[in-house]
Amino acid sequence: MKRKVNVSNLNVSYYGNEVVSDVSFSFETGNLIGIVGPNGAGKSTMMKAVLGLIPKDSGSVEICGESIDHVRKKIAYVPQRSIIDWDFPIIVRDTVLLGTYPHLGVFKRPRKKDRKWASQCLEEVGMQDFGDRQIAELSGGQQQRVFLARALAQKADYFFLDEPFVGIDVASEEVIIKILKKLRDQGKTIFVVHHDLSKVEAYFDDLILINKELYGAGPVNKVFQPENMEKCFKMRIGLTASLGVGV
To answer: Is 115 exposed, middle or buried (0-12, 13-18, 19+ CB in 10 A)?
Structure first.
């Protein structure tokens, strides 16, 4: 049986206002999947509901036939930079070390091998020389690389990243997408909330097109078509446009 991520009839509302309406999709594992839609489309809300970080009104989520709660230790989540408290007094090395905590032994204290692994993850994202810096001292791109390193430290099978390319430099974006593709090639499954339509075809294998409702879910070459995009964005657009981030 093929291993899949299945979301069925997902509905989410805030204070009685429907934000995600009857969304269903199914993807085989081992793919890099973009989540695209206009500003306020419910992209981030959908991701959080799928992960159980916010309550859903109805619907089900299964990963390889199991509920999210049963596979939570296999999931790494990188939130939007805008909701992170960058003034929290923690250095880069310790931030990445937090990623090892779900797999620590009974004493719940990082060991030498955990610290070594955290250092390797920092090296993977090109931040090995910044280990003793406070995270508040870093640029936006550097901060995003550190949080990706923390996700790598979790040794997860499923990665969920919410707007990882917003407000970062070109070099950091290139580093991050290269790592995400490497993870994909290793059989990992990655979902990315994304806003830059000009990069969709270069970055993703599959696409989820959402504006409260689902307007397409499947291979990029089938979903990323003018008629689908214009229905979703409710305007005539060029597919090289770069549109705003969503909720």
So the answer is: middle
Tell me the CB-side half-sphere exposure of residue 128, using CA atoms within 13 A: 9
Secondary structure element (H or E) that encloses residue 159, with its range: strand 158-162
Class level of CATH domain 4-233 = alpha beta
Q: Is the pLDDT of residue 141 over 80?
A: yes
Spatial separation of the C-alpha atoms in residues 164 and 178, rounded to whole Å: 13
Q: What is the dihedral of CA 99, 72, 11, 83, to 10 degrees?
A: -10
Q: Please tell me the distance from the alpha carbon of residue 47 to that of residue 164, in angstroms, as a whole number.
A: 13
Query: Which positions ≥6 away from 178 have C-beta within 8 Å?
Result: none
Averaged pLDDT for residues 161-167 = 94
**Mean pLDDT of all residues belonging to the chain:** 90
**What SS3 class is residue 204?**
coil
Give the pLDDT band (50/70/90) at residue 180: very high
Residue 187 backbone class (left: φ over 0; alpha: ψ -120 to 50; beta: rest):
left
Report domain extents, the chain. 4-233
Give 43-60 pLDDT, tens digit per residue. Answer: 999 999 999 999 999 999
Instruction: Quote the DSSP letter at residue 134.
Output: B
Instruction: Compute the CA torsion angle 62, 68, 69, 73 (nearest 10 deg).
Output: 130
* Burial class (CB within 10 angstroms; exposed 0-12, middle 13-18, buried 19+) of 218: middle
Distance CA 201, CA 174 (A): 15
Averaged pLDDT, 150-176? 94
Q: What is the pTM of this model?
A: 0.90
